[in-house]
Amino acid sequence: MHPELILRPQQMKQADGLTVASGIPGIELMRRAGRAVAEAAAKMLMKEAHVVIAAGPGQNGGDGFVVAALLAGQGYRISLGLLGRVEQLSGDAVLAARDWKGPVVPIDSLAFDEADLIVDALFGTGLARDLEGVARIAVERMNASGKPILAVDLSSGIDGDTGQVRGVAVKANRTITFAARKPCHLLMPGRAYCGDVEIADIGIARETLEATSGRLFANTPSLWLDKLPRPELSSHKYDRGHTLVLSGGATRTGAARLAARAALRTGSGLVTVASPPEALGVNAAHLTAIMLRGCDGPEGLHHILQDERLNSLVLGPALGVHSGTRAMVAVAAHARRSLVLDADALTSFEGLATEVHQAFRHAPTVLTPHDGEFMRLFKGHPDIIDPESKIERAHRAAAYTGAVLVLKGPDTVIAAPDGRAAINANGTPYLGTAGSGDTLCGIIAGLMAQGLPAFEAACAGVWIHGEAGASFGPGLIAEDLAELIPGVLRKLLT
Ligand SMILES: NC(=O)C1=CN([C@@H]2O[C@H](COP(=O)(O)OP(=O)(O)OC[C@H]3O[C@@H](n4cnc5c(N)ncnc54)[C@H](OP(=O)(O)O)[C@@H]3O)[C@@H](O)[C@H]2O)[C@@H](O)CC1
Ligand SMILES: Nc1ncnc2c1ncn2[C@@H]1O[C@H](COP(=O)(O)OP(=O)(O)O)[C@@H](O)[C@H]1O
Ligand SMILES: [K+]
Questions:
Q1: ipTM for the complex?
Q2: Which residue in 204, 247, 308, 310 has the fewest CB atoms around it within 10 Å?
């Protein structure tokens, strides 16, 4: 099974160049691209419908000319408007424009509200700056028309690399992209602007895509399914790992239990909650299959970790923001077990990121910040927090700390220090509920306890968490999530 590759705009350009060099002319690629869009358009249309095509000055516009010629040949009524003049076109767009025998009008004279379908071929991967003037007005008029919009490659106005809106962007219902998805199809807000995305094969070889892609993937099971643990006939609980989750004080114990239960449901053979003495009673009252031990601060943790069988740790949820938590992190990192750090374990290092510089390179470690925790942790490190691309931010943080970074949100990005990265897209807004992140920590730790490497555990954990949430929908609370994990695993493993 091939993992799904994602190509950044620059890489797509390279793949395009290599394909042309291998003997397929650029205009042929453009014709295939246009044909895929025309086929998708025809599926959205009644016979003799009116299609309004907005073509831009580059090769995305060229695709628009191909679509116009093909749909006109099938009997659809076409209006084509161009941003700029035909004489200013360059490259393969010149050839594509020659195939279009109908009129070309200025883009500002197109009547979008008379369309049955709008084809957005204004800008694709070559968008270079914010939309202004005529281009901006055209996009605003398209959006205001309320008509269905089919985007060529990506929604015009969306930055292909970062998914950010450059001034204004087309609200497309559907997008046909070519050869592979681009980051903007998965990253927010681009994902929302592109609508349903279909990938059309235009004959760029898999090897070419692999050679240019730089190891960025969509987080689909093909990325990690073969590594997902399956217990052997002869295996016993200790073969499936032992996860330790640190609990907060007497009034802050729920987060640890959520993580612990998720680790157990994910298949960790044993799970123990390590609790401050004053919280032992409340933890004991709520735990059954999960074991409980007293743990008095960093020294207590050091003592517990003398048991080598404890191979995976969760540290952070509700632990408290203070130097004691930093000391616990130091003990955990020193112990070289698999480690998931979240919430207070990250916030306790607010503005102190230098203390975690390369701290986690010796053992499989996963950091799971949401945007707020990320900003706090890397405060004072503009090289890490400033890049517009979420992938770049996650990459840099991973390289800095030596840990796998899970930068959470509707478009969670998982990045490894070795340069691999994945973008997740199967979640649901219903996951935005108290304790949801604690559950995610437990899933990832439970997978690492069973031997999954950190990057694969993080990717699989985020996907399983997303799938569990999506399978429940409205009314989801964090307590439900662990109970939904078996259903997700069953589908993956059988
Ligand atoms: N790669 C492939 O394999 C294949 C690619 N294909 C297609 O090519 C597309 C990429 O084409 P592309 O590189 O020509 O870029 P594109 O998106 O048309 O825009 C560039 C033009 O827009 C202009 N411009 C930029 N920003 C602007 C702004 N804010 N406001 C105004 N103008 C602005 C810019 O002008 P300039 O910056 O030079 O002033 C330039 O003229 C790709 O998305 C896909 O559809 C397919 O045919 C199949 C094979
Ligand atoms: N709109 C959304 N779509 C998909 N996933 C979401 C969305 N909002 C939040 N999530 C996910 O829900 C989880 C929330 O975690 P977190 O913010 O740490 O919550 P808490 O601290 O309450 O546990 C993360 O895994 C995040 O990716
Ligand atoms: K477009």
A1: 0.96
A2: 308
**CA distance linking residue 379 with residue 453, whole number of Å:** 29
From atom 6 of ligand 2, which residue's Cα is the shortest distance away?
410
9-214: CATH topology? Rossmann fold (3.40.50)
Average pLDDT for 335-343:
97
The Å distance, Cα 3 to ligand 1 centre, comes to 28
> Residue 344 Cα, ligand 2 centroid: separation in angstroms?
16
Report the relative pairing of strands 242-246 and 216-218 from DSSP bridges: unpaired
How many whole angstroms separate alpha carbon 423 and alpha carbon 415?
A: 9
Q: How far is the CA of 368 from the centre of ligand 1 (A)?
A: 36
Q: What is the length of the chain?
A: 494
Dihedral, CA of residue 494, residue 6, residue 195 and residue 426, to nearest 10:
30
Q: 362 labelled as ligand-binding?
A: no
Q: Locate tokens 């249309």: which residue?
A: 45
The answer to whether 183 is a known ligand-binding residue is no
Q: Domains of the chain: which residue ranges?
A: 9-214, 221-493
- Please give the Cα distance from 285 to 110 (Å, whole number): 69
pTM (two decimals): 0.96
The answer for residues whose C-beta is within 8 angstroms of residue 312's C-beta and 6 or more apart is: 241, 242, 243, 244, 263, 268, 337, 338, 339, 340, 445, 446, 448, 449
Give the pLDDT mean for 290-308: 97
Number of Cα atoms under 13 Å in the Cβ half of residue 232: 6
Pocket lined around ligand 1, Cβ cut-off 6 Å: 12-13, 16, 29-30, 33, 56-63, 123-131, 135, 152-153, 178, 202
The residue ranges of DSSP E strands in 379-491, in sequence order, are 404-407, 413-415, 421-423
| CA R_g for the chain | 26
Q: What is the mean pLDDT of residues 236-261?
A: 94
Closest ligand to the CA of 126: 1
